[in-house]
Amino acid sequence: MAIRVYKVADIVENHVIFLRQHKFKKEELAAILTGLGPIADPIPGPAWTLGLVIGEGPGAREVILPLLPLIGKSTQVDIPLLLGEINDHSLFYFRGRLFMPERSPRDAFERDEVSLRIKKAVYDEEFELSSLRAAVANLEAAIEFQKSGPKRDPIPEEVKLLVWARDGGCCVRCGSKQELHFDHIIPVAKGGGNSEANIQILCQTCNLKKSDKIAVT
Prior knowledge:
Elements: E1 5-12, E2 15-18, H1 26-34, E3 48-54, E4 61-67, E5 81-86, E6 89-94, E7 97-101, H2 108-148, H3 157-167, E8 180-184, E9 199-203, H4 204-210
Parallel strand pairs: 2-3
Antiparallel strand pairs: 1-2, 1-7, 3-4, 5-6, 6-7, 8-9
């Protein structure tokens, strides 16, 4: 039977920020966190804090509780780390997030299942964020392209020399040797580059006729 796993909190700048989209109470998580002892091979790090609201209504107040440095070598541990258990509930840490399965795993097989489900949830979240960054970057590049047009890099000098020698130092259309220009056969605006095969010599008249077209009509 599959064990459902819930993300219950994010760790942001050493603060525990609880989420609301799960079935566990904040007090249940606090009971596990504040009852923790040292874990294997801990390396000291910044203390985390836990904000807990006590009471309801006008008399409610928030208490900030210090937490132990729970994580070992770094916040980027390779496998979900079991922080503690209470009343058949267990709390896991993985990559800056806290998770609770609907019940504590009973054996090694179930512990492996919980670990895999936690990792899948985190990787899905990170992949979504990575895809969002890429989409925004593409949109920003498209907006910048619309504002400034395609980026036009200068034709390299070695390409100019090769084209000049190949075309005989004259316009390839009419043979003129006056007011010559290096022209992109496929315009930059249509995806043309600065390779020798895409550069030709045109006189000013033929170049103006061609404009941004691929051929002179």
